[in-house]
Amino acid sequence: MVLSMDEIINAVCLHMAARKDVKPTEVTVELSWDELSGYTAEVWIHDRSQYLVESNIIEAILRYLHSEYGIRAYREDITLDLDEEITAHVRT
């Protein structure tokens, strides 16, 4: 199974909304990758910015897989990949 960049963004939005007790529409996410930091997400909630590292993004994906698809996966089942956009490959 492969999650698109939009699905990863949705996963992070839903995850952060639940953690910060706000509506998902109040969360903005920008995914990125660079050689120094690897995969990161910058999240804005009420004009405040927070950076998430790869493990935080994977945590959001795990929660999303369970809530949206009924899939219980483990961290080692998920790999982030960068082609034209960032995707998540899930071994099920």
Automatic annotation (TrEMBL):
Protein name, as recorded: YxcD family protein
Highest taxon above the source species: Bacteria
InterPro entries (UniProt xref): Uncharacterised_YxcD
Family annotation (Pfam families): DUF2653 (PF10850)
Source organism (scientific name): Paenibacillus zeirhizosphaerae
